[in-house]
Structure formats: C-alpha cells, structure tokens
Amino acid sequence: MKLNYASDSCGIVHITIGTGGKPGNPARALDDQTIEEACSSSPFNNPATWVAKEAKNPTVFGPAGNCPTVQPDLGGFCWSDGQPSFSAVRTAAFGHGTLDILNATHAEWAFYRNNDAPGVAMDKVMLNRGQPTTCASVAGRD
C-alpha cells in the first residue's frame, strides 16, 4: 500500500466495484462484449449532446447539466485512451465481489463474473497487513 507515494504496510486499501449503468445496446448482455465495443455503441459517448439534452432536468443534474459522471475532457462516459489510470481492472461484465477475512493479517478480495463457471474468480488479490503490532493503530500510538 502507498501513502504520499511511499510504501505503508499499515495504510488503507480502497476497493471499489460497481456499474454506473449499462452502456450500449440495453438488450445485449455486457458479458459478451468488450469495453471498447460497449462504448462505441453507447449513446452516452457524445457527452456534449447528452449534457445538452439532460440539462433540461436540473433537479437531477444540477445547473446546466453539470453531471459529475460525464467528463467531456476524458471522452464522456467512455475514456478514449482506454482504461483510466485510477483503474486496476476494467471489464464490461456484471458480477459480485467477496472479501474474506482470513486472519488478523490477511484478507482476500475476489471478483466473480456472472457468466463464468461457479467458483472461478475473474480477479483476485491477497491483502497482507504484516505484523499488526507494528501498526500505530494496533500498538496504541494513534
């Protein structure tokens, strides 16, 4: 884990999963297409047109369609440069994640896609805190 660009084994780990909506053809399953395919068919990939249209509903999107999800400088909902720098894994698949606390120092995070075989993780990471007594919060130094 890193804090201020320095390694910190006692630092916080943030894992975010979810979907902000289904881009592309609503009748088509996302699991059978790539992010690029979903984005190329998405009506939201033209942010200027979309913001202008949705600006008529200020109760949802604020003044002048100021929707934080639309990022015109980054190509709208779909990033033109591929995967965003803040994202470690990006997939169009739906699924669920699990966080298994194994003991005082280890936890395992896994993401399972709906269309994969049962029990087959698409992505998995082991989080190792090290010796908990060396961390200030456990040793009573915080």
What is the alpha-carbon Rg in Å?
Answer: 20 Å
Tell me the number of helical segments per DSSP (H or I, 4 or more residues long).
4
Uncertain spans, ≥5 residues at pLDDT below 50?
Answer: 57-72
> Number of folding domains?
2
Structural class: alpha+beta
- Percent range for β-strand residues: 15-25%
Basic shape: flat
- The count of strands amounts to 5
Assembly annotation: single chain
Strand order within the widest sheet?
3-4-5
On the 0-100 scale, what is the average pLDDT?
A: 64
Order of helices and strands: EEHHHEEEH
End-to-end Cα distance, whole Å, is 18 Å
The largest sheet is:
3 strands, antiparallel
Task: Provide the helix percentage.
Answer: 10-25%
Pfam families: Metallophos_C (PF14008)
GO molecular function, one term: acid phosphatase activity
Domain Purple acid phosphatase C-terminal: 80-117
Keywords: Signal
Could you describe the 3D structure shown?
The chain is an alpha+beta fold and 142 residues long. It has two domains: 1-19 and 94-142, no CATH class; 24-89, no CATH class. The chain is 15% helix and 18% strand. It is built from four helices and five strands, in the order E-E-H-H-H-E-E-E-H. A three-stranded antiparallel beta sheet has the order 3-4-5, with no helix packed on it. A hairpin with a 2-residue loop joins strand 1 and strand 2 (6-7). Keywords: Signal. It holds the Pfam family Metallophos_C. This is Purple acid phosphatase C-terminal domain-containing protein. GO terms for molecular function: acid phosphatase activity.
List keywords for this structure.
142 residues; alpha+beta; 2 domains; two-stranded antiparallel sheet; signal; Purple acid phosphatase C-terminal domain-containing protein; PAPs_C
